[in-house]
Write a structure and sequence with these properties.
The chain has about 290 residues and is α/β, with parallel strands linked by helices. It is built from ten helices and ten strands. The protein has one domain: Divalent-metal-dependent TIM barrel enzymes (TIM Barrel), CATH 3.20.20. The longest helix has 18 residues.
Amino acid sequence: MVTRSHRVNLIGLAAILCLIAVPTTAEQKIPDEYKSNGFFIGCQAWSFMRFTVFEAIEKTERAGGRVIEFFPGQKLSKEEPTVSWDHNASTETIEKVKAKLAQHKIKAVNYGVVGIAKDEAEARKVFEFAKTLGLRAVTTESDDAIDTIEKLVKNYDIKVGFHDHPKQPKNPNYRMWDPKYILSLVKNRDRRIGACADTGHWVRSGLKPVDCLRILRGRIISSHLKDLNVFDPAGHDVPFGMGVSDVTGILDELRRQRFDGNISVEYEYRMEDSLPEIAQCIGFVKGYGLKTR
């Protein structure tokens, strides 16, 4: 016979089991409608840093991209050239950018590279901005703020990717270039913390991007995808498939890892007139693997 007391206990047990079953890392997803050939391919607005935010959105659409990653400090528009775009933007400015994105059917998915403070109140400004824009992730190199970052990743359900710039021979304290260091930084942290894989900077550091991706397997949050003309710190961007970075191998590895973050074309060569080359890069990703299917 089940008494009233037993029923209460059973209900309580069921509630506890339901709580246990809830995943602790519900992940933000980019809507599938923004995929191209299985990837969320678009532009890092830095490719258009000599233009405004509005122009970067327009050029991303013209290049064939579906998503965009913003960076802090870009000017808003030709009409408002003194207004800067970052996580301190006014509500009015944010609404203007949202409207521009909707006009061109571009999805904002990421923001960086941006410094994140150890101070929680200051760091929250970045995460609030990301939440308001509906971003999936933030890109940073603020390894000293990892404890604050992990807390806010859990609070906001927004991913964070640690970015790599090239090795700095005169500054041995700079370690972000090394995927093994980034792995050591994130491996015991929330799964929503990982790497923003800048493949061009790995090449400039003398590393093979595919090897780096394998080191960081399961921790790739996003990518600044580049193909460089030479394995050298002075190498410059070229259209995908025309350089030494093995972009096909990179895409193979990302697909093998079931990567579902954004790929940002960050093209830093002939930046006044790089749109045709950026369009080639996006076209390469859209055409990747089609001949073998």
